[in-house]
């Protein structure tokens, strides 16, 4: 079975500071990893994904994520947070043998002015 | 842009009613999914479909059924609504490859009273 852990329910950062939202995963075979963002009362929006290749993946709105195979992690990062980044963030995993994503429980990011 | 449209943003139904949640996508995606989202539990997969008239159980199918008569439409049915089915329901679609991202609808917040 595949699984995702997002160890922090909430992350607080000040605007302009770097942010990190943590994600670790468990899956058999090669992982396909995704980050999604959800704004209040909205569906999920795709941010970025890792399938293969460079361990550092760049995505929408200035976000990036680093794939670390030895630590089975895929942390989401941004060099300088904006108040508008405040939202709920989900990490998800699958592999080539599955047709469905397994999501983490989500991390609420709060960026203060 | 890919568009996934859910028929209702908010629904209030009575216990025991049969409830239909409709979802339509306009990008000719093979896969369609129904998730429910609850605070602290993240997204949990109810059912998915990879082709017309095909359906597969997800992690929490009890109390639900689905219908996919046309490629673009995927319906979730609550046979006899109960209060513990009060939740946010999210529909998503994707191409058949697991390396591609899923696109989500805006969600339906269902309240069963």
Walk me through the structure:
- The complex is a heterodimer of chains A (113) and B (113).
- Chain A has no helices and 12 strands.
- Chain A has a single domain, classed as Immunoglobulins (Immunoglobulin-like).
- In chain A, strands 2, 5, 6, 10, 11 and 12 form a 6-stranded mixed beta sheet that branches. Chain A has a 4-stranded antiparallel beta sheet with strand order 3-9-8-7, with no helix packed on it.
- Chain A has 113 residues and is mainly β.
- In chain A, strand 10 and strand 11 form a beta hairpin.
- Chain A is globular and about 45 Å long.
- Chain B has one domain (4-112): Sandwich (Immunoglobulin-like), CATH 2.60.40.10.
- Chain B has strands spanning 4-6, 10-13, 19-25, 31-38, 42-49, 56-57, 64-70, 73-78, 87-94, 103-104, 108-112.
- In chain B, strand 5 (42-49) and strand 6 (56-57) form a beta hairpin.
Write the H/E string of chain A, N to C. Answer: EEEEEEEEEEEE
Structural class of chain B: mainly beta
Superfamily at the CATH H level of chain A? Immunoglobulins
How many domains of chain A? The number is 1
Name of the top-level CATH class of chain A: Mainly Beta
CATH topology of chain B: Immunoglobulin-like
Question: Mean pLDDT of chain A, rounded to whole units?
Answer: 94
- Uncertain residue ranges of chain B: none
Please bin the fraction of helical residues of chain A: under 10%
**Rg calc of chain A:** 13 Å
**What proportion of the residues of chain A form beta strands (DSSP E)?**
over 45%
Write down how many β-strands of chain B occur, each being a DSSP E stretch of 2 or more residues.
11
Known CATH architecture of chain A? Sandwich
Q: Give the topology string of chain B: H per helix, E per strand.
A: EEEEEEEEEEE
**CATH H-level name of chain B... which superfamily?**
Immunoglobulins
**Which CATH top level class of chain B fits?**
Mainly Beta
What percent of residues of chain B are in strands?
over 45%
Number of domains of chain B: 1
CATH T-level fold name of chain A: Immunoglobulin-like
Shape of chain B: globular
